[in-house]
Amino acid sequence: MAPSTTGSRAGAYRRYADVYDLVWRAAPYDQFADLCLGAASRAAVRPERIVDAACGTCNLVMEFASRGYHAVGFDLSDSMLERAVAKRRATRLDFDVALGDLRAAPLADGSADLALSLNASLNYLLETDEVVAALSHLRRITAPDGVVVVEPLAARFIHQGYDPGRHVRDDGFRMDASHELHGDLLVERLEWTVEGVEGAESYCQRYYDDEQFEAMMGAAGLVVVERLPMYPFIEAEPARGRMLWVALP
Q: Which letter does DSSP use for residue 156 in this model?
């Protein structure tokens, strides 16, 4: 049976927002931030305004805000943003959130010195013209002397499979992730239990190889200046094989 593509239109991660922070609470967001800032520095950019597109519950946005940057996150999932707002209230960190689509970024031209879209967010867009539209909006919201950093789906998730971090057991929380491949589509199912309450969600991503992705970056008017491996800068196993693409608008 062919996988559904409705998740691309409606936005991924709806019920999963309930447990997203439980799954990712040990992620090294400080190192993610360091890596992105280092990429900006090598591109001769010293950012003050940082935008995280498809920000989830704003964990990376909060890291930048804690360092004094003007940080903004936007996401298509209102469930994710509800949790981001609750965390902003609890921590009293100063950052902004907006509801918006990667294909129509809800920010003004030149809003960012550093625009990010990490963790394979672009791969939820299942058609190349959608990816080009999203990349074009990232270029649009980035200042002419700014930089764009994106992280497409790593090839190992398609060609080698990936298990670490897909099965979580911690203090009454259980989460299991499984996936199926349909050509260049990865269909993942998440199932979890929190204190006896069960939940599940499925979503779909399309893999674009390096040649395709570079062509889409060019079509969006972005000039790739670096491809930056996460590993070994981030030594945790989930970083192995992941790559940041650094581009100028």
A: H
